[in-house]
Predict the 3D structure of the following.
Amino acid sequence: MKPSPFYRATAVAGFACALLLVVNVARRGGLLPETALTHAVAPFAPLTGLFAITGLYLALRRTAGTLGLVGYLLNAVGLAGAFAIEYTLHLVFPHLGTGVVDGLLKGGTGRAFLVTSAVLLAGVVTFGAAVLRTRAVPAAAVALYVAGLIPGSLRSLFPIPVYLTGLVVAAAGFAWMTARLWNAADPEAGSLT
């Protein structure tokens, strides 16, 4: 069968997500400079990840069952929230005073960030379990994705080196998982073959 353009596009989104995560880690780790460009691209890692998990879910929906749907929805909401958080951190907070940012983080904004992190973590673990159950994606790829996004989701609870290492591990797992979409055919079939 001919590969689906839709699945190819979601595979590209997965590769872009992985690359952007590595760029973010390199910037945060001091390997790339802190520039307007490196800050402007930061929010696009979770956004491209959202497109990629949509492709994965649609490809696996028949075998992923209800667990897959719940995991996909939680993961999607978490990634959408992570996009909003990254956008705020990189493109809004730098234009506010430290006192204003501290006040926001101690109030409702900080609580919203925490809830978003918890939803993302729940989604990653649930979606990962559903994908593992399908056996359509290498278990090691899923394990890297889930293990890496545990500190990636809860970055304020982990030391920065653990958080950054987690993002690199998650990027490797995500690229590996979404590589399966490159040759997937027939979006109506709902399974990777």
